[in-house]
C-alpha cells in the first residue's frame, strides 16, 4: 500500500523526461528494497552463548575450492550452528601467509585452530610449539612424530575408492573404466590406487578383464591435469578416456572435475552412455548440473570430522591421536546410486555390501602407498 | 643482423608512457583505489546490507554501518601493516611493520628486475619464472648440501642470483639473436619453470624421506638468512640485500656506462646502434641482471620466509612485481617504496581478514585498481583535475558504483 503510492509518485516524475525517468525507476527500485521497518533495538552480540572459539586457516586454494578447503569450512560453519560456538577463518594467498595467519588466530583467542593441507604442516607445528596451551588440528596431513597439541585428520580414502572400482568394473559395458587426477599428490592418488585395486579385485573374482585407463598403480603414474582449476584440461582428458573406450570416469581433480562433467554431457548428447563417479562429496547433491550422470561418489566426509573434533575439544576430550576416516567409522564411504540405481546389477550391489563388510573386518586389505601410516 | 632486435613496435610507446608517468599520478591512483576499495568493502558488508533494508525508516543506521565497515577494515589493515597500538603480545606494536618489510622484500627485488628491463625497453613478464628457477636452485643447495655457516648462505644466494640471471639472460639471448618477442618468451619461460619445478617435486631427490607430498625438506639453518630484528620477527637479512639491490640499480642506471647503454636502447635502439652501442650485448645483459634481481626474490622466499620449496614458491610475486614497477615508475627508489606499500597491503590484509572478516581478495582488487588508474592517467586527472565539469562527472560515476 505504501509502496504503490511511492511508485505512482515516481511514475509522475518519469513523464518529465527520459533522464529523470531512468533516475525515477532506479530510485523506485531502491525504495522498494529499502522501505522495510527498522528493528526496534540494535540487538547486542548474539554469540554470547559460548566463549569457545574454533578457527580455520585455509591453504592457497581458497575456501571455495570445491574440495578440502570448502568441505572443512562447511564443517566449521555447521559446528558454529550446532554447537553455538564462535568461529573465525582466514584464507591464505601465498605460502608466506600461513605463519602470520596462524599467529593471528591464536592471538585472536582461538581455542582450536584447524589448518587445511600439508602445505601448512610446518607452520602448524611451529605455532603449536609456540603456544602449547592452544589446540590445533590439521586436515589431510600427519606428522612422523606425535605433537601433543595437534590432531591430524586423515582419511584412508582407498577403502571407499576400492568399492567404487568394483562398482565401476561391475557396471561398465565397454569393459574399460577411466580416471585422472588434478595433481600427483598422495591425497589424490590414494583415490586412484583404491579404484585400481577395486577393478583388479573384480577381475580376479569374476575372471573378467576390465581395464583401467589413466592410472597405473604399480608404476604410480597416470593422467593428470596438473591443475585444480583448468576445467578445459579436465574436459580434454575425459574426452581422451572416452575415445579410448572408457564408459565410467572417476575425475579426482577438485573444480576440474566439472570439465569431466561437461565432456560426459557432450558424449551423452552424441549417443554414448557414459557415467561419472564423483569424489569428496556426494556429487548427486553437490554438483546438480551433472547429477543425471552420477553413478556414485567416493565420499570423504571432512566436514563431519571437523565438527567431531571441535565437539571433542569443546568437551575437553581433545587428544593428539589422529582421526582416521575409514569405512568402519563412516569417515569415507560410497554414496548412494540415486537415479542410477537400476543401472547397477543386483549381484554387484550385494557384492559391494559384502566387500564393505570384509574391508571393515580386515578380511580384504586395501593398500596404497598413500594410505595413512598407523 | 640486429635488425629484428632493433625494431620496436609502436605499442611500446604507450607502455613507456604508462611506466614512466608522473609520481603524482601514482599517489593519486593509490588514493583513488583505496576509496573505491572502501566502497566495495562497505557494499559487500552484511550490516550494510541489512541496514539498507530499512534505509528510509532510519537512514542513520545505514550510513554508520557503511562508514564503519570501510573504516574498520582499513584501520585493521593499517594495524596489521604498520603499527598496532596497545598490542602486548610477543610481537609488540611494531610487529606489523616488521611483517610489512618482510613481505615487501621479494616484491622490491623482483620489482627492480621488471623496472630495470623496462628502462631498456623490454617488457619483462618473466619474474615469476626467474623466481622459481632461482628458488629451486637455492633451495636444493640449501637442503641437499651441508656446508659451514656463512659459506652455505653465500652459496645459496649466489646460486639463486645465477639461476635467475640464466633464466632471464636466456630470454635476452633469444631476443637478441632471433628477434623473438620478450613478452612471449618470458610468459612461456614462466610455464617451463613452473612445470619443471612440479616435476622435480615428484622426484625423490627433492622430497622428504618417506613422504610423497610435493614439499622439500627444510633448508639447513646455515643456509638461511639470519633474522635481523630479533627472533620474534620474520624480518631477515634479505631486506638489507633488497636495499643494497636498490642502491645498485640506481647506481647502474644513473652512474654507469652500462646503465647508459640500457637507457639508450630503451629510448631508441636504432639511434643507440648508430651511436655504437652493442644492442645484442646490452639486451642479454639487462635481461640477465633483471633475472638476477628476481632471483634475489627467490632466495628471499626459500632462505628467508618459507624455508622449504613448494610449487608455490613464487606465489604471485612475479606478477605483482610488474605492478610494483609500474607504481614505482620504473625508478629504483620508486620501486622500493611501491614494494613497501604492496608489502603493507599484504601484511595488513592478513589482520584485516581475521579482525573484520573482510575478504583478503579486496587487497587484490585495490592493487588491480591502482594499475587501472595508473594506466589511465586522464581518468585520475579528471577526478582530481582542474576542470570542474569533469570532476563533477567523475564523482557521480564513483557514487554510482557504490
From TrEMBL, chain A:
Write one Pfam family the protein is assigned to. Answer: Bmp
The ABC transporter substrate-binding protein PnrA-like domain, residue ranges = 55-359
Q: Which domain of life is it from?
A: Bacteria
Alphabetized, the UniProt keywords read:
Cell membrane, Lipoprotein, Membrane, Signal
Report the InterPro entries cross-referenced here.
BMP_lipoprotein, Peripla_BP_I, PnrA-like
Check the record and name the Gene3D superfamilies matching this protein.
3.40.50.2300
PROSITE patterns per record: PROKAR_LIPOPROTEIN (PS51257)
Q: Where is the signal peptide?
A: 1-37
Q: How does it sit in the membrane?
A: Lipid-anchor
Predominantly, its location class is membrane
Q: Where in the cell is it found?
A: Cell membrane
Keyword check for Cell membrane, yes or no: yes
Instruction: Return the similarity comment.
Output: Belongs to the BMP lipoprotein family.
Q: What is this protein called?
A: BMP family ABC transporter substrate-binding protein
Q: Which organism is it from?
A: Arthrobacter horti
Amino acid at each position: 500500500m505504501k509502496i504503490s503510492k511511492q511508485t505512482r509518485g515516481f511514475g509522475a516524475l518519469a513523464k518529465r523526461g527520459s533522464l529523470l525517468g531512468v533516475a525515477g525507476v532506479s530510485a523506485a527500485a531502491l525504495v522498494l528494497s529499502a522501505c522495510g521497518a527498522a528493528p526496534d533495538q540494535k540487538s547486542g552480540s548474539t554469540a554470547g552463548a559460548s566463549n569457545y572459539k574454533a578457527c580455520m586457516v585455509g591453504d592457497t586454494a581458497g575456501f571455495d575450492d570445491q574440495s578440502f578447503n570448502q568441505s572443512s569450512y562447511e564443517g566449521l560453519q555447521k559446528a558454529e550452528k550446532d554447537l553455538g560456538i564462535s568461529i573465525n577463518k582466514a584464507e591464505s594467498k601465498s605460502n608466506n601467509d600461513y605463519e602470520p595467519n596462524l599467529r593471528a588466530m591464536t592471538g585472536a583467542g582461538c581455542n582450536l585452530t584447524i589448518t587445511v593441507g600439508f602445505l601448512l604442516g610446518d607452520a602448524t607445528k611451529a605455532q603449536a610449539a609456540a603456544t602449547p596451551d592452544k589446540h590445533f588440528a590439521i586436515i589431510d596431513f600427519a606428522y612422523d612424530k606425535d605433537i601433543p597439541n595437534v590432531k591430524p585428520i586423515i582419511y584412508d580414502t582407498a577403502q571407499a575408492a576400492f568399492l567404487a572400482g568394483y562398482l565401476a568394473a561391475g557396471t561398465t559395458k565397454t569393459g574399460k573404466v577411466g580416471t585422472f587426477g588434478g595433481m600427483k599428490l598422495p591425497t589424490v592418488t590414494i583415490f586412484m590406487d583404491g579404484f585400481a585395486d577395486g577393478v583388479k579385485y573384480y577381475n580376479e573374482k569374476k575372471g573378467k578383464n576390465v581395464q583401467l585407463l589413466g592410472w597405473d598403480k604399480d608404476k604410480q603414474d597416470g593422467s593428470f591435469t596438473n591443475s585444480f582449476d583448468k576445467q578445459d584440461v579436465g574436459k580434454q582428458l575425459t574426452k581422451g578416456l572416452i575415445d579410448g573406450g572408457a564408459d565410467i570416469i572417476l575425475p579426482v581433480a577438485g573444480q576440474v572435475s566439472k570439465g569431466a562433467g561437461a565432456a560426459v554431457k557432450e558424449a551423452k548428447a552424441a549417443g554414448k552412455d557414459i557415467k561419472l563417479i564423483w569424489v569428496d562429496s556426494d556429487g548427486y547433491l553437490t554438483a546438480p548440473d551433472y547429477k543425471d550422470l552420477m553413478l556414485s561418489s567416493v565420499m570423504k566426509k571432512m566436514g563431519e570430522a571437523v565438527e567431531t573434533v571441535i565437539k571433542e575439544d569443546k568437551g575437553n576430550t581433545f587428544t593428539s591421536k589422529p582421526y582416521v576416516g575409514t569405512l568402519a567409522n563412516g569417515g569415507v564411504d560410497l554414496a548412494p546410486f540415486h537415479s542410477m540405481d537400476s543401472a547397477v546389477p543386483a549381484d554387484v550391489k550385494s557384492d559391494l555390501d559384502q566387500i564393505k563388510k570384509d574391508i571393515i573386518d580386515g578380511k580384504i586389505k586395501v593398500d596404497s602407498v598413500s594410505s595413512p601410516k598407523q | 643482423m640486429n635488425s629484428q632486435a632493433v625494431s620496436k613496435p609502436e605499442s611500446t610507446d604507450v607502455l613507456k608512457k604508462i611506466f614512466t608517468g608522473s609520481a603524482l599520478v601514482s599517489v593519486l591512483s593509490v588514493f583513488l583505489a583505496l576509496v573505491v576499495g572502501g566502497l566495495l568493502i562497505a557494499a559487500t558488508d552484511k550490516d550494510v546490507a541489512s541496514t539498507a533494508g530499512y534505509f528510509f525508516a532510519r537512514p542513520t543506521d545505514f550510513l554508520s554501518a557503511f562508514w564503519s565497515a570501510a573504516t574498520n577494515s582499513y584501520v585493521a589493515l593499517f594495524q596489521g601493516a604498520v603499527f598496532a597500538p596497545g598490542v602486548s603480545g610477543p610481537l609488540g606494536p611494531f610487529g606489523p611493520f616488521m611483517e610489512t618489510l618482510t613481505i615487501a622484500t621479494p616484491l622490491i627485488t623482483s620489482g627492480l628486475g621488471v623496472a630495470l628491463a623496462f628502462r631498456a625497453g623490454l617488457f619483462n613478464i618473466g619474474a615469476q619464472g626467474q623466481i622459481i628457477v632461482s628458488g629451486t636452485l637455492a633451495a636444493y643447495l640449501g637442503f641437499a648440501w651441508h656446508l659451514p655457516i656463512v659459506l652455505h648462505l653465500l652459496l645459496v644466494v649466489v646460486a639463486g642470483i645465477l639461476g635467475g640471471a640464466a633464466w632471464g639472460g636466456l630470454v635476452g639471448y633469444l631476443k637478441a639473436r632471433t628477434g623473438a618477442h620478450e613478452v612471449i618468451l618470458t610468459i612461456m619461460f614462466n610455464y617451463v619453470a613452473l612445470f619443471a619445478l612440479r616435476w622435480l617435486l615428484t622426484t625423490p631427490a627433492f622430497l622428504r624421506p618417506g613422504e610423497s607430498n610435493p614439499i622439500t625438506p627444510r633448508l639447513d639453518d646455515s643456509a638461511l638468512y639470519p633474522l635481523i630484528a630479533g627472533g620474534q620477527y620474520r624480518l631477515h637479512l634479505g631486506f638489507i640485500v633488497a636495499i643494497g639491490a636498490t642502491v645498485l640499480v640506481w647506481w647502474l642506471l644513473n652512474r654507469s656506462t652500462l646503465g647508459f647503454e640500457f637507457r639508450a636502447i630503451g629510448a631508441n635502439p636504432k639511434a643507440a646502434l648508430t651511436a655504437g652501442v652493442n644492442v645484442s650485448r646490452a639486451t642479454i645483459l639487462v635481461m640477465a641482471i633483471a633475472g638476477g634481481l628476481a632471483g634475489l626474490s627467490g632466495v628471499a622466499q626459500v632462505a628467508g620466509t618459507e624455508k622449504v620449496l613448494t610449487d608455490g614458491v613464487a606465489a604471485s610475486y612475479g606478477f605483482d612485481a610488474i605492478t610494483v614497477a609500474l607504481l614505482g615508475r620504473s625508478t629504483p627508489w620508486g620501486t622500493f617504496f611501491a614494494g613497501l606499500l604492496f608489502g603493507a597491503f599484504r601484511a595488513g590484509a592478513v589482520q584485516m581478514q581475521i579482525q573484520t572478516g573482510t575478504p583478503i581478495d579486496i587487497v587484490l582488487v585495490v592493487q588491480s585498481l591502482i594499475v587501472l588508474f595508473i594506466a589511465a592517467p586522464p581518468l585520475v586527472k579528471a577526478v582530481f583535475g582542474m576542470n570542474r565539469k569533469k570532476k563533477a562527472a567523475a564523482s557521480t560515476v564513483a557514487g554510482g558504483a557504490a
